[in-house]
């Protein structure tokens, strides 16, 4: 019982010391800021300018952020939209297509909410109906490649357009090479969609 | 047997063609066919019995119809490649008994006399076919016609022509048929139909999407086709009497290349499975139960076509690393290779169609990277190349098992063409670079009464 009383007294004096230290900080006591006037009077011109400046600052920062996001979005969109091309009657991923897909893998890891539709296309030379199957295989080959880098298969859907949607209607090697392709469209924009 | 003999007779022609070609070309050009295949259109001016048809007599007000009837019927005979219409005789007198000796002198084997009776709303065409050689009446029948402007107007006349064909040649005519095909449309492509004589080409879908691979139901009143109208491509069926379409089959992933069995009980089609395309058969009678009938992992199987027995199919597959035609019994998962495998060559055989008689399968195969038409027996024998000029693809048999419609770029103008595989005669059906994937119908019967009734009631509702 006495021990308890003792410690209580000690605690009291300790608190007192703390108060003394707290007040006698050595440095001249700064004038406390005047309490902001209760909003009874009209704000002064100065205050309004200040608020406008803050507002401007906030807007500027927002704008900057928006531009930064826009640039990021632009970059993501560009990377994702980039087509891959195939050899004639083949659905294997070529080395140049692999580079394109690697860039997509990086972006898709960065934005896990993005979902893609992969469309396979063919040149006009094979039979109309076989090209539907070939385009499907191309789309599937691209999907398999992306999934092999750990991306979830559920993020990709595939479709084939066979030779029905050529980019170039020419009947020459260049046009055919251009038309044998995989195309990408976003079906879910993930985080990008929130902007 | 008779046909085979005819082809053998033309061997000198074939030899001349091969000998004329530079040696280097003949070695390279045929990279998808073996060297022993017969090359060349085997043009045979086969005997076509002459048929004469004097002007059709008609009551006042129906003369124009009478003229059209004669023109349409004679053109049908010409397009049949079995009868030779004679221009002479249009102004021959028809009063009194038939002067057989006179018609014989004019070169006619058959004489067709037509008379139109009845009213403008319900004209009747009375046809009598005379055998000039035996000097007797072969057959007589009255046909219900329609005014020409009626949707069934021309078809009713074609049906009469087909009946005469059957009397004269004992084999079915192909005049009362239509060809469905893919043509250009706002959203990509639409399905079109055209009469067998090239008249009445018109779109029958208006989906502003991609429509492909039309296939006639054996009844001729419905068409299945592949459509991108929904986000997931599916097989739709179009009811031609009512102009309405419905989803017939929509498995997850792409469904494509539909074909009806000749008995009308099932539909075979290609569908997505696990990253590839396989063939399924769907039970049309029960309206359910798609069942897979090909099993080739890592390969595509598509474009099925039924044998006349509805129990076997031919189809297209790349399972050997080359594109080939296979034949398989439904329910037996070991298909047989039909087209020759050629080591180390790029082979591209596609688009098979089994003839209604069952004896030949027509398809296109690449020769020097250009598709050409071929036929082959279902046991893989007797491979024959039918075309050599331009690109020739996606053939489809007529019900006579003798004519084939296909897409071609011959003669500098692309379009759908009809080839008589017996004589090698070709005619253009529809022009245009974007018309493709034709499918030849069976006989188009007159619209059923129930169909007429319901279409009438639709009209009533609109009024």
Automatic annotation (TrEMBL), chain A:
SUPFAM superfamilies attached to this UniProt entry: OmpA-like
The record's PROSITE patterns line, in alphabetical order, gives: OMPA_2, PROKAR_LIPOPROTEIN
A GO cellular component entry from the record: cell outer membrane
Q: Which Pfam families match?
A: OmpA (PF00691)
Q: Does the keyword Cell division belong to this entry?
A: yes
Regions of compositional bias (Basic and acidic residues) in chain numbering: 50-67
Q: Which domain of life, per UniProt?
A: Bacteria
Choose any GO biological process term that the UniProt entry carries and state it.
Answer: cell division
Membrane topology reported for the UniProt record: Lipid-anchor
Where does it reside? Cell outer membrane
Residue span(s) of domain OmpA-like: 73-190
Keyword check for Iron, yes or no.
Answer: no
Assigned keywords, A-Z: Cell cycle, Cell division, Cell outer membrane, Lipoprotein, Membrane, Palmitate, Signal
Region of interest (Disordered), ranges = 26-67
Q: Which family does it belong to?
A: Belongs to the Pal lipoprotein family.
Task: Return the protein name.
Answer: Peptidoglycan-associated lipoprotein
Q: Which organism is it from?
A: Candidatus Kutchimonas denitrificans
Q: Taxonomic classification, please?
A: Bacteria, Pseudomonadati, Gemmatimonadota, Gemmatimonadia, Candidatus Palauibacterales
UniProtKB/TrEMBL annotation, chain B:
Signal peptide extent: 1-27
Keywords of the record: Signal
Enumerate the residue ranges of region (Disordered): 444-463
Record-linked Pfam families: PD40 (PF07676)
Q: Coiled coil: which residue ranges?
A: none
Q: Does the keyword Cell cycle apply?
A: no
PANTHER family for this protein: PROTEIN TOLB, PROTEIN TOLB HOMOLOG
Q: Which family does it belong to?
A: Belongs to the TolB family.
State the protein's name: TolB N-terminal domain-containing protein
Native source species? Candidatus Kutchimonas denitrificans
């Amino acid at each position: 019982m006495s021990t308890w009383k003792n410690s209580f007294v000690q605690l009291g004096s300790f608190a007192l010391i703390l108060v003394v230290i707290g007040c006698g900080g050595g440095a001249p006591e700064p004038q406390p800021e005047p309490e902001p006037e209760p909003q009874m009077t009209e704000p002064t011109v100065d205050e309004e300018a200040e608020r406008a400046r803050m507002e401007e600052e906030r807007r500027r920062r927002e704008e900057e952020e928006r531009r930064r996001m826009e640039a990021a979005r632009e970059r993501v969109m560009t990377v994702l939209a980039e087509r891959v091309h195939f050899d004639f009657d083949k659905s294997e991923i070529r080395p140049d297509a692999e580079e394109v897909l690697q860039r997509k893998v990086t972006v898709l890891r960065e934005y896990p909410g993005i979902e893609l539709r992969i469309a396979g296309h063919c040149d006009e030379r094979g039979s109309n109906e076989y090209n539907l199957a070939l385009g499907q295989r191309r789309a599937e080959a691209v999907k398999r490649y992306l999934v092999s880098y750990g991306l979830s298969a559920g993020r990709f859907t595939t479709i084939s357009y066979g030779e029905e949607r050529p980019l170039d209607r020419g009947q020459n090697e260049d046009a055919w090479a251009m038309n044998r392709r995989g195309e990408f469209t976003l079906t879910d924009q993930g985080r990008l969609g929130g902007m | 047997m008779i046909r085979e003999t005819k082809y053998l007779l033309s061997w000198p022609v074939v030899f001349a063609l091969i000998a004329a070609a530079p040696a280097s070309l003949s070695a390279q050009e045929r990279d998808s066919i073996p060297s022993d295949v017969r090359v060349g259109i085997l043009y045979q001016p086969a005997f076509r019995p002459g048929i004469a048809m004097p002007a059709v007599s008609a009551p006042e007000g129906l003369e124009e119809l009478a003229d059209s009837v004669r023109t349409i019927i004679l053109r049908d005979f010409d397009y049949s490649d079995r009868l030779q219409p004679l221009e002479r005789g249009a102004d021959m007198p028809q009063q009194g008994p038939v002067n057989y000796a006179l018609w014989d002198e004019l070169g006619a084997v058959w004489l067709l006399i037509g008379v139109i009776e009845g009213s403008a709303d319900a004209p009747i065409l009375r046809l009598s076919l005379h055998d000039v050689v035996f000097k007797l009446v072969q057959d007589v029948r009255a046909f219900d016609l329609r005014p020409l402007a009626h949707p069934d107007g021309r078809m009713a006349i074609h049906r009469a022509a087909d009946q005469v064909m059957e009397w004269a040649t004992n084999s079915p005519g192909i005049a009362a048929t239509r060809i469905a095909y893919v043509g250009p449309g706002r959203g990509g492509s639409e399905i079109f139909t055209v009469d067998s004589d090239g008249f009445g080409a018109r779109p029958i879908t208006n989906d502003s999407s991609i429509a492909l691979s039309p296939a006639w139901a054996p009844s001729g009143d419905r068409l299945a086709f592949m459509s991108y109208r929904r986000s997931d491509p599916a097989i739709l069926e179009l009811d031609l009497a009512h102009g309405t379409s419905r989803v017939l089959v929509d498995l997850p992933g792409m469904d494509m290349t539909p074909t009806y069995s000749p008995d009308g009980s099932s539909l075979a089609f290609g569908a997505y499975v696990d990253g590839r395309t396989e063939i399924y058969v769907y039970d049309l009678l029960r309206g359910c139960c798609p069942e897979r009938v090909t099993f080739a992992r890592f390969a595509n199987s598509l474009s099925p076509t039924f044998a006349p027995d509805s129990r076997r199919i031919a189809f297209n597959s790349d399972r050997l690393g080359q594109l080939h035609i296979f034949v398989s019994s439904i329910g037996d998962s070991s298909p047989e290779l039909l087209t020759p495998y050629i080591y180390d060559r790029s082979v591209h055989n596609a688009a098979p169609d089994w003839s209604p008689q069952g004896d030949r399968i027509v398809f296109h195969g690449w020769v020097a990277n250009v598709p050409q038409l071929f036929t082959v027996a279902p046991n893989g024998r007797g491979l024959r190349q039918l075309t050599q000029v331009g690109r020739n693809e996606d053939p489809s048999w007529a019900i006579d098992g003798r004519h084939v419609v296909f897409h071609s770029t011959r003669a500098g103008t692309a379009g759908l063409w009809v080839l008589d595989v017996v004589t090698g005669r070709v005619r253009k059906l529809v022009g245009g670079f974007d018309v493709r994937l034709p499918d030849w119908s069976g006989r188009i019967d007159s619209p059923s009464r129930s169909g007429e009734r319901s279409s009438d009631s639709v009209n009533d509702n609109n009024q």
